[in-house]
User: Fold these one by one.
Assistant:
Number 1:
Amino acid sequence: MKKFVPLVLLASLSPAFATTVQNLDSVASAIQHPEGKQIFAEQMAGATPAKGFGELPQGLSENQWIGWVAPNENPNNLILTGAKAWGKDGKYIGVACFADNQADAGQAKKYADNTCPENYNNGRANKLYLGVFSWQNQQLTPIARSEKPLNQISAWNKAAEKESDDESVRPLAYYTKLDLAPYRIAPDTLAFGVRGGYSDAYSGGGAFYEVLELYTIKDSKIINVFSDLVYYYSDIAGDWNKDGTRQHDISESKYILKLRSAKTQGFYDLEVVNLQDKSSQIFRWSESLQRYAPFIIDKR
């Protein structure tokens, strides 16, 4: 299968940390970042992912929750729910993940890996809904929700699909956790993150990509304002050793998101920094798109 990387990310995927180890037992110690160590633990040691979406606050039933955040979904197709406290005043960010049908939901729950997993029938993420709400005195007070599942509104997904000529590409195949770092993208606007990714399987290895999506509230809706790659890891089996073991080529790239002091249209510029060589990409607010877009310097 052709290895796919969206054009907007080609520059940021290189250079990467790369090394070759002599056997599979040496892979774990060669991985530099916790994201890769967790991937290896899950793929090779069967470790269960942490509950990255948290749990609904005590007293809030699943039926009450999904009845508001995803009223058009069949409760029988539910895979998981979760929520994490956000800021003060009893606010939470919650999720509900649905399959397309009850059989697929049962299959996903059978593995119980605490993620909104890939739908293996269509190669896409299952349907993940977001909701921001207040929970006080055993009372649910709605604030904002996503009107469509996230895998339909991610700008990173749309760009990836548009720029690919490989029909087997799966731009985003699963969602893993809420990222509630204080992403204050404007003096009066606090965004929150959702992390997800996709993987490519090779004979003797694989590659994993993690994407950060930022969301914010506009009126009573949750909108996607930023999406980009934040981590890449690959393990490709190489030459055979005389003792029957096999060498492995390990590559990693990690990026951090910085909020700059400079503003565009009232929103702080964002900078995605490659930790390997400190190269970076600036993103600025686009009023016409109502989201961040890469800032390209005209060198003519």
Number 2:
Amino acid sequence: GLTWKQCSQGQSGNACATGTLATMGWSAALSAANAENFAGASDWRLPNALELKSLVETACYSPTINETVFPATGAAVYWSSTPQSITGLASSWVVDFEQGTIGANTRSTNYAVRLVRGGRSIDNFDVNGDYTPNAFAFTAQNNVPLNSLRTSNAINVAGITTVTGIGISGAAGS
């Protein structure tokens, strides 16, 4: 469900041959995405780290991207929108299309930008929204061998009035 901008920021035209690859700090990259109005759409954004990593073509090297689909990308490093907080520094995740690796760097470093739109999103928080589902239960499955795959009974999650993430984990008492 994603639509990628074929050319990197600063490039345009057939085979992205017009202009030059623009590099910028993370804040400027977010601002550029927010200001973008390309192909009649104004909802362009900086991809998250997993979305950007999905463009890595493991059969290619320097650049590790399909150059037919994304021409003139080169072996550049690209910003993602995903912050990284382990280092204690203001840093965010990047993807290096020379080797296809993912890492983090300080937000003041200048890197390239490729924009995306669409995908899965969560609504803005609505103070009046109901985020708690009605009670539901899965049918107990007893005497199940360890490490065996089982499928639960189907349920319908009801009672919520907004888009929200749902996760299932563990069993009672585990």
Number 3:
Amino acid sequence: MTQNLPTKSPVSILKSILSNESIQSQFKNALKDKASLFIASLTDLYASNTYLQSCEPKAVIVEALKAATLNLPINKNLGYSWIVPYKNKGKLEPDFQIGYKGYIQLAIRTGQYKYINADMVYEGETIEVEKLSGKIKMSGDPSNQNVIGYFSYFETINGYQKAIYWTKERMELHGKTYSQSWKSDIKKGTKLSNWVKDFDKMGLKTIIKEILSKWGILSIEMSKAFENDSDDMSFNHHEQEAAVEANAEVIDTKPLNTNKKGETRKPDF
């Protein structure tokens, strides 16, 4: 009589793969003494999220290694980076993304920035943009908590300065243009998109990545971050909406981690 063996849970499979010596060495090469803590946080993240458990465990580890090579924590409460599940042709696939705090952290590590900042602009505050030089002047005090725009600014240690400002209307146009989930919300009459639920935090991520990707100092680590993050340099932002509330929902959109033929890249182990 044949006896059916119990099926291993996704968490058990993930732990089994993580215990492999070759996988352990990859995390140790990236994180040194911090590797065990990172692996523990990955296990906790995977075990606590049913959406990620529906993803292939090996694929989740591949995305986690991207965070490890950049030494960015994947704890969603910290806001540095995330592993986000996406639907691709009905199948859930994990995708590594960097939050605006992660980009600021990477910029600070270059040792080339004297100041770096991003914030919201409220009603009552006045913004003047000098088009030729790109300089921004702010004046006035907030009269209420209504956000009218977003700015980011940095100054390097050699004195180079750059500031950019987007109105809320421009940010809304950006979200509606590139967010697949926002388009889906409009079509279905729902409010699930993070652009809808927490627009201001999405605005901050967009504005800080805009300034760093176009005018920031691209160290090797920063270049790797832009390469690994799902948002490419041409600003195809359809995955950015998940950064605020990562793993809280599944967003039905194809990730950018595909090869030239449009096929999803497979884990390399």
